[in-house]
Structure prediction request, 430 residues.
Amino acid sequence: MAQPAERPPSVDKLARSLAESGLPHPLLVDVAREAIAAGDHNSAADRVADLQRSLLQPVINATGVLLHTNLGRAPWPSSDAGTYRNLELDLATGDRGSRQAHAPSLLAKACGAEAAIVVNNCAAAVMLVLGALAKGRGVAVSRGELVEIGGGFRVPEVMEQSGATLIEVGTTNRTRRADFANAVDDPAHDVALVMQVHQSNYKIVGFTEAPTTAQLSDLDVPLVADIGSGLLDEACPWLSAGPPAWLKDEPAARQTLEAGADLVLFSGDKLLGGPQSGIIAGNAELVAKCARHPLARALRPGGLVLASLQELAMAYLRRDGDAIPFWRMASVPVAELTQRAQKLHDATGSGSKVIDTMSVPGGGTLPSVEFASAGLSYAGNYRDAFRNFSPPIITRVVDDTTVLDLRTVDPDHDELLAEAITTTVIGSLA
Ligand SMILES: *Cc1c(COP(=O)(O)O)cnc(C)c1O
Prediction:
């Protein structure tokens, strides 16, 4: 506690005393001013720590949720920013080129599409497709697929914003090909597209029926499939062990196109494992129509994202799943995780238990899928203490037990984890 007689330091002096934090002086001045205004200049260091915690920064994900929405979904390295790139320069001719010429065409190749373009996320992809191909006209969607995906992506609302008219067909639990055919044949509906939307984050079970992509592929209008998660190929040729069992019903871009969809739309940062982006892939003419629409300019990604997606596409084309953190983490055998947990336990001493646990894909994908994992548990709730470590470690607390799931932790971070355990848990027990 400050003594009443003690004079507070000047704002400037206090701000300078915090310089070691590395934060820019104007921010430290704000902190110093607030601390002095609160009559507690000794709180300045804590306020600096609070400010540092409010910044975007790398964290260690020990939750076992592979695509953690609050942690930016898929972890994927961003390319170096400080360089020029031939973003819109054709190096062969020296003429103006297209930013959609590099990563998008490689992604198209990786999923067997004629062409592709990239926008900022899958919501933007849906918006662009509807605006470019169905504005002022009807789009037929099954009532069972009028979904809300986490974060407020609602099909009817996106449809309204795009200027297309939603034509609802079938019922919530049962929709047949004939329902779509009737809508397409009705001139009053002026249907421009049929759209399938993957029920990414929920399931309708019981008395249900929905037409397959193949069944809808011979209607008289283009078929667009919003598959959501961005699984490129259900055979997973990038995994040496082949497709994992937990993928069983997940629609894949390649097979959806083969089944007759004219376009597939998907996110870049779910099962694709890349940076936030949205991909429109399929029929070259339809893709070109989307690319020419004025909205495409507003929704286009920057060079950082495109460079990073190009690396990702190359990893897929090399069939190198190990180079893609999401697939590497998803495929690690439990025995390996148990071994790491045992090592951590041995290095940090008592207090922990090596446990079997369950990881989930997360990110609004694959509801009800879990896969075996391993890690450490501690009696008591250490969530805040781990989060306040530098770098922050995000954990799961269940029934007053803190769980560190190693499936989502890069093995290179095990040492940091050991250090955090020693200071956080062991420290508090001492
Ligand atoms: C996740 C998802 C979206 C939204 O994707 P964003 O990339 O988050 O915009 C749209 N449609 C489906 C089917 C999804 O699963």
